[in-house]
Amino acid sequence: MSILAFVEQRSGEFRKSAYEAVSEAKRLAQKLNTEAVALAIGHNIKSKASELARYGADRIIVADAEPFLNFVPDVYARLVVKAIHSTGATIILVPHTSLGRDLAPRVAEHLNAPMASDITSIDVIGTEVQIKRPVYAGKIRANVSFSTQPIVLSLRPKIFPSAELKGAGRLEELKADTDVFSGVKYIVRELKKIAGAKLDLTEADVIVSGGRGMKGPENYKILEELADLLGGVVGASRAAVDAGWRPHSDQVGQTGKTVSPTLYIACGISGAIQHLAGMSSSKVIVAINKDPEAPIFQVADYGIVGDLFEVVPALTKELKKYL
Amino acid sequence: MKIGVLIKRVPDTEARIRISDDSLTIDEKGIEFIINPYDEIALEYALQLKEKYGGEVVLICYGPTDAPTVIRKGLAMGADSAIHIEMKNMENEPAKSAKVLAPVIKEGNYDIIFCGKQAIDDDSCQTGSRLSVLLGLPCITEASKLEIDVEGKKVVAHKEIEGGVEVVEVSLPAIITAQKGLAEPRLPSLKGIMAAKKKPITTKSVSEPEPLSKVKKLEYPPTRPPGKKVGEGVDAVPKLVELLRNEAKVI
């Protein structure tokens, strides 16, 4: 028995969500009186992998080879399954990221195992595992239980804290035979970094979001200035994306991204139910809107009724005194 | 090309979702059901492929007895026919759905299979990847741009990942799950709506495997404590900053 955390890397760098998964694996392992195993797949990651002990890994299993650099779903899934078999893992934690959303269900299907996606909490009652996950884009929360083990869980980013927990950190290598490549018809041609790309919305601590009230794409500059100052990124409502002002990848809400930053500043966003669904798990919400009746004020911790074109630059200026 | 498109019946995005008295299901009264928006994007792309290369588009829907209402919308957009797999066990569980869908897809011998990257009801994002394993077909998830080489039986896709774009290639037949940006769904024309009434929907009754996970309880998320309006206009800004620093402690 053990709890296995999948450690996500891109281009040799561990993602934030990897540390979150390892720490949560350790917390569960402590409750269930077992070991936390971290599994890292990639290339030239061995030295980095030993750091995972600081986040609670008791065993660190590394599959390190040149063909493992990029995420090839079938290959990664087979490696994870191999590690599950060799460790007897009963709970497998994978971050709910672009990579994890493809990998985790594959692993589950290989094992004919249940999986719960995008979960926000895990409870262990005796030996029974019960999880909570938002459904209907957060309008409802489901409590889910499982009829068999192992269980595959994908963790919503930025919900499970990564913590300094001491793990034994025994490093070992996962021996991969060539059969992990057999019949694979999936080629990664290229990995393009978006020029000037900052953090992804789902990873950002601060999001400054603009909606219909922005009136046009050129006006997002004032949001970018505020976001830059706070080390955050700019998001958008569906109205702004549908109008072509911002790319789809910036959309927050039911048919966009679900985000949980520390600070969410909604500018000129009325607060349609599908938008609220995507951002109401933010820790602190600020709303700036000229309509005092806008529904966004019902979820905002702090609201300013006013013209965002005056308030946002004034806010940037005021914050500069402290940052 | 024979193109299969998986569609799911889901509540409209603007619907207010209420929990039933049993705390296990949602109250469907008064809710308008639509094709899952990501499936609709997938369907639109499939229709464009058919218009370019010829062939047929078959809808496959695993859903309750009233699912044909939503299936007709897909036929009105331009799909040629549909298969409705009747859902009797209403547990909305991805492992069960994949096992139900896989043999039906296999039977169809499709050149390419499309579905949405996730359904907006249970938000699981599992179907495409689970089917990939069950059917032994390559799968690209969350494709926002595609180039299909029909002669060479190849697909190149752009996938948005955190902070970048991944360009990947698979051979056909394959499963593709659609992300926003892949296509802009058309509105059905009047002619399309009339034609849809005559298009065939084959109903299939299959044995459903037991779900591996179960919803124990649905609940509303904790409500946020009522916020405060700090004030009006630029004058309220210093007060807001003070609150963010000293009360919320986020600056």
Task: Put the structure in a nutshell.
Chain A contains nine helices and 18 strands.
Write down the secondary-structure element order of chain B: EEEHEHEHEHEEEEHEEEH
Ends distance of chain B:
56 Å
Rg over alpha carbons of chain B: 22 Å
Spans of chain A with pLDDT under 50 lasting ≥5 residues? none
Helix-strand category of chain A: alpha/beta
Low-confidence stretches of chain B: none
Report the average pLDDT across residues of chain B. 96
Main beta sheet of chain B: 9 strands, mixed
Percent range for helical residues of chain B? 25-40%
Oligomer: heterodimer
DSSP summary, beta strand count of chain B? 13
Which properties best describe this structure?
heterodimer, A: 323 residues, alpha/beta, 7-stranded parallel β-sheet, 18 strands, B: 251 residues, 9-stranded mixed β-sheet, two-stranded antiparallel ribbon, 6 helices, 27% helix, 31% strand
SSE arrangement:
The complex is a heterodimer of chains A (323) and B (251).
Chain A (H helix, E strand, L loop, with lengths): L1 E6 L1 E2 L2 E2 L1 H17 L2 E8 L3 H4 L9 E6 L8 H15 L1 E7 L2 H13 L4 E5 L1 E5 L2 E8 L4 E7 L4 E5 L14 E4 L12 E8 L12 E5 L10 H9 L3 E4 L1 H5 L20 E5 L5 H7 L4 E6 L6 H4 L2 E4 L2 H13 L3
Parallel strand pairs in A: 1-4, 1-6, 4-5, 5-12, 6-11, 7-11, 14-15, 14-16, 16-17, 17-18
Antiparallel strand pairs in A: 2-3, 8-9, 9-10
Chain B lengths: L1 E6 L1 E3 L21 E3 L1 H17 L2 E8 L3 H11 L3 E6 L7 H15 L3 E5 L10 H9 L3 E11 L4 E8 L2 E8 L2 E5 L11 H7 L4 E4 L8 E7 L8 E5 L4 H10 L5
Parallel strand pairs in B: 1-4, 1-6, 4-5, 5-11, 6-10, 7-10
Antiparallel strand pairs in B: 2-3, 7-8, 8-9
Helix pairs in contact in B: 2-5, 3-4
What can you tell me about this protein's structure?
The complex is a heterodimer of chains A (323) and B (251). With 323 residues, chain A is an alpha/beta fold. Helix content of chain A is 27%, strand content 30%. Chain A has helices at residues 16-32, 46-49, 73-87, 98-110, 221-229, 238-242, 273-279, 296-299, 308-320, and strands spanning 2-7, 9-10, 13-14, 35-42, 59-64, 89-95, 115-119, 121-125, 128-135, 140-146, 151-155, 170-173, 186-193, 206-210, 233-236, 263-267, 284-289, 302-305. In chain A, α3 (73-87) packs across α4 (98-110). Chain B is of the alpha/beta class and 251 residues long. Chain B has helices at 37-53, 67-77, 94-108, 127-135, 190-196, 237-246; strands spanning 2-7, 9-11, 33-35, 56-63, 81-86, 112-116, 139-149, 154-161, 164-171, 174-178, 201-204, 213-219, 228-232. The model of chain B has no long low-confidence stretch (mean pLDDT 96). Chains A and B meet through α3, α4, β7, β9 and β10 of A and α3, α4, β7, β8 and β9 of B.
